[in-house]
# Entry
Amino acid sequence: MSRFASIVLVLAACLAGPAGGALAQEPFPSRPITLVAPFPPGGVADLTARPVAAALERTLKNPVGVVNKTGAAGAVGMQFVATSKPDGYTLLLALSSISIIPEADKLFGRPPAFTVDQFAPIALISADPTILVVRTESPWKTAKEFIEDASKKPGQISYSSSGIYGTLHMAMELLSHAAGIKLRHVPHSGAGPALTALLGGHVDALASGPAVVLPHIKSGKLRALAGWGESRVAALPEVPTFKELGYPGAEFYIWAGVFAPKGTPEPVLARLREGLRAAVADPEFKAAMDKLETPIAFKQGEDFARFFAADAKRLSDGVRMVGKIEEKK
Amino acid sequence: MAETLQNLALGFGVALAPGVLLYAFVGCLVGTLVGVLPGVGPLAGISLLLPATFGLDATRAIVLLAGIYYGAMYGGSTTSILMRIPGEAASVMTCIDGYEMARRGRAGAALAIAAVGSFVAGTLSVVALMLLAPPLANFALRLGPPENFALLLLGLLVLAYMSGGSMLKSLAMASLGLMLGMVGIDPMSGYFRFAFGVVELGDGIGVVPLAVGLFGIAEVLVTAGKPTPPLVQQPRLRELLPSREEWRQSVGPIGRGTLLGFLIGIIPGSAHIISSFVSYAVERRLSRRPEEFGRGAVAGVAGPESANNAATSGAFVPMLALGVPSGPIPAVMLAALMVHGVSPGPLLIQQAPALFWGFIASMYVGNLMLLILNLPLVGLFVNVLRVPYGFLYPAIVVFCVLGVYAVNGSMVDVWIAVTMGVLGWLLRMLQFETAPIVLGAILAPLLEMSLRQSLAMSDGHYGIFVTRPLTATLLAVGVLLLLLGLRASIARGLDWRGRLALAEKGDQS
# Structure
């Protein structure tokens, strides 16, 4: 129902578009804002976008609707926002894939669907490090044992991922590069099937967001070896980070942030930053994120720009490290 | 057993509370509606209502969403039978014989059989879900990519039994479907295939635009192209109910459809769609009069409609017992649980018994509700056939376009549906059947993914398909089936297919 409402919002926004241009001096915001989630309902982007939109609606005192514009691993929705009018009324809730897709396009030499500099970063909402999990009955008790074993038999330990060049794939590639090991990649169609493959014993390891594997760690089916974060995951205080273990290159976050199209006027961006800062402090928003077991990691302005740039560099390095998958000779 | 009954009593306590009962009813009603509307299937319906459930408690939310899922399976048959438009993708098979039944004035009977079959399948499979979920879920986990590949290969064999008439035409259509299924991002290397620079084609050609185009829009074009418009039907009340003979013919298919549907439902992928195809093929294979299929066979409605309902319960097995999704729809429902702070996983049954058993009990209640809701609607829906075609068909086209657009909000999907409509019309004119295209397009990506995952697991060694006992067994069954089929056609010279072709020739001359 709210999807219909949001479609109506978009239509309203489109109709109001030309009129808005004429009245350049109108205060922002004065009509409904659309937050585009480039993934289907139920995914991380969607589940983050909805509480963000609800809280932003309260702090800006202006309607904010979520629209799922899905397709091609998020490229469709991101392209849509990249080419939208930069007036602050069309925003994007993006995940790390925003830096991966243009890099992969470049790698394959195809015209990019969009580029990172078509966006103005507004704020980071959450950033959760991935953690390395294996089955409890596997021989590896620690990350050190895992890495040692992997260097002894290169290409034999397998891992599943959410898809080629996907976030879970990138995390594992960054680790492989940092530790100088070679693992066997078995892509799956999403994080859910990737976890199923690990539980069923069809692959040996998985890099995953903490929330989805916590119940399986608690029930004794999976063991967490190490995390990709700068610090340990709050819910798993005994699990070390790769940084602690001496692999600083293995740093990776599944993050969600809000972007506007490049060229959005600075006063509008400032108003949005302010609105989002108040929104993440909203108790209802905090409760919603708690239920998802996703820690809020708010960053804006220079902080977010720096985080985004560092992350984009890691990811584009990752994509180049994987390179183009060529046919085996 | 005593424990199960005690738990079930707890569940009914939850499910029969007025608040929960109301949401079960709303879910069933919305499900029936999204099922009836062409194109809009359970996934679109659940996605639409997901945000609306954020304000509810976890039990109500999951009861509502599950109601939409299995409700859509009831509603999906309606437009398939009345207008040859699949209400959702799992009803494609019902279009064939259901519509033929309607053309012979048995629309009411077909709708009633679909509803009763759905009810029986829904109820029996909940019993199975309740008693067998944990052991079955652990078994389902053992089905990795190689096993999936073997199972899907068996599914491909099914293609050969999909339609009557020319085997050559049937296989040509299946190949076309398999090729259409290759469009999109290569799952293992990230290359765009056959996308011609259209970003939206990266995800491939969706099942919904394909099915709605090939069946719905094509049917409108075919009818419009006829020199004399078909007579508007005037269904009479006493013809609404199935005859004793029709009931007798549907008992076996409903039973087999239930079993097949539930088992296939557990397997990851678009299980409810595939289950209906498999059930149709099995019924045709077992039937003593296979030539009746495609011309209004009761079993061709009863089997697939039961199977797709049973598959929805099967799909809940890994979701409830292990917290892992078996397809896109359970994945959205898992997200709904997470939003409410319920962490789905192997501990769900112990940690949230009221939610688990309430959910199970609500499925018993919901299936009963749907039966009560749908049987009287048969009388109402059949009256749609009284609408003159000049009014009915433009409305159908509008609904097809709206339904396709609603799924992803993508105009590209609408153009695909229109293109497929024209293609479907051309193929129908040339006496090709279009159902194998849909099955091929569904199977191709799944088959490719599982084959290439298997090879990634084994570092490129095909031995993985014979060293895993389960895979080897499944493949052996496939080979056996193939040989049996060959032997029959060699020994007898003419099987039912041949007889049918002869009969068709007789018709034409």
About this structure: The domain at 2-128+254-320 of chain A is CATH 3.40.190.150 (D-Maltodextrin-Binding Protein; domain 2).
